[in-house]
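Subject: Interface between my chains keeps coming out wrong

I've been trying for a while to get a sensible model of this assembly. When I model each chain on its own everything looks fine, but I need the whole thing in one frame so I can look at the contacts. Pasting all components below, labels as-is. Any help appreciated, I'm running out of ideas.
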Amino acid sequence: MIIKGKVWKFKDNIDTDVIIPARYLNTSDPKELALHCMEDYDSEFVKKMNQGDIIVAGRNFGCGSSREHAPIALKAAGISCVIAPSFGRIFFRNAINIGLPIFESEEIAGQCSEGDLLEVDTVKGTIKNLNKDKVYKTNLMPEFIQNIISLGGLREYVKEELQRREKNV
Amino acid sequence: MGKTIVEKILSAHTDTDNFKIGDIIKARVDFAFANDITAPIALKYFKESGARQVFDKKRVGLIPDHFAPNKDIKSAEQCKLLKEFAQEYEIEHYFEIGKMGIEHALLPEKGLVLPGDVVVGADSHTDTSGALGAFAIGVGSTDFAAVIALGEIWLKVPPTIKFIYSGKLNKWVSGKDLILYTIYKIGVDGANYKVMEFSGEVIKGLSMDNRFTICNMAIEAGAKTGIIEPDEITLKYLKGRAKRPYQIYKSDIGAHYEKIIEIDVSKIEPQVAFPHLPENAKPISKAKGIKIDQSIIGSCTNGRIEDLRIAAEILKGKQVHPEVRLIIIPATQDVYLQALREGLIDIFISSGAAVSTPTCGPCLGGYMGILAKGERAISTTNRNFVGRMGHPESEVYLASPALAAASAILGRIAGPEEVK
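Reply #2:
Try treating it as a single job with all components included. I did that and got this:
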């Protein structure tokens, strides 16, 4: 899949409480969560961003709570991809599991500017900065994780595995 | 080559032979649980997966604790989903209000998570149970749904950082101070994707309650989990609690660690982590005097009986400052009852504190102690992120129960020795 989108830059250690404050966790409706995405960081963010935009963040993006509502809110708000040097590990798993493309790259985070247009090849893991005419390679996911991604997320993997087990009984 | 405790636990739970750090393995799960925030999404996914039953009815826990007792209609609907699912799938360990406690305090107390286990919880503070010598990791809702359907989880085998604590603890320095100091030393991503193994003579001398506090906050350094080798103190704690047989694992002398960090505790004062990251810890001598509006004693970090005993020791015969709200939340019903029997609740209420039924409540800005714009709290909880306890322009200072109690009396951040 090829994703094209404009960059929104975020600092280091953006936690999941900031991505979606806990006061909204009495629901898991993606549309409702999307309305409050990043609200405590920039109350106008959801209004300013466009569908398909990309977040390029600093270290440890998504640290803190295990709430899957965080990647759900980002995805439902229209964020197409998140790139950071490192992620909170639960956020990392959650993003893969729900099918929000996510890439680790030290270089891009340091070198791109807000508003740059990026083109991301999610299969090859290459990212082009169309404004700065630069191409970056990101760390490829291990084969097992790539398999989950190509199935469309962990839920599809579980369905397949349950069917496989049933046949073997 | 020797193995770490985590490598041994994982070996015992996977069919993959000779795995290395960084390899992806599938591990069998001994106990899995979720709460009223994380379970609703998971239970929906579970039903959609085609699974007919959970992998083991005795090894799944559903605990309404975050916004429970139900704080509003939407929360009530979420809690109702847990109850209905528990009935439909005959989940043995569903904890209704009145029996419920904060999950990470409740499950060890009930002997449902044990040494040598692989524990998967849909909550980031699942690492708390690492204090028992279990490999206990937090995940999100989809992972939890997969675990209760399949009984296993995919994992990347993590490297381990060993922390060795030595020296003599100063007065009023607790497990909370040690972990806040450790996070200050390595940063909020200092152990990202890794295991923190806590060891040394100081850890060996700590009670289980202090050990739970330490492992609880490993996630605040980004860790996959925290773990402590079981010893006599662990076995004593388990006696009469453990609901199943369990296996004790210990790290070999020649085990490989990514890093070994030695910490001399004799130099550590009680700590206060300033807004808005847990790594912003300062010694109390450099934190005194900040005016507070609220003090919270509770949570999965510090809501156990020893935490309440320390608070009571300081509050006995004193009054909470007239401009401060002190809210004390025992982590479980058993802790609450024990505190009542020991006369601690009497001391709290006589001092002007409010005592609440168990709930995560204010820790994550749910309810039962939300901060207004510009307000400040000292809190024994685990996170001081922007907006964590209420308004985005409020502030949370993390500290031990001793400091939270002393500060509540004086109306400003203070050490217990200042309470006259």
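Reply #3:
Confirming on my end. Chain B is about 30% helix and 20% strand.
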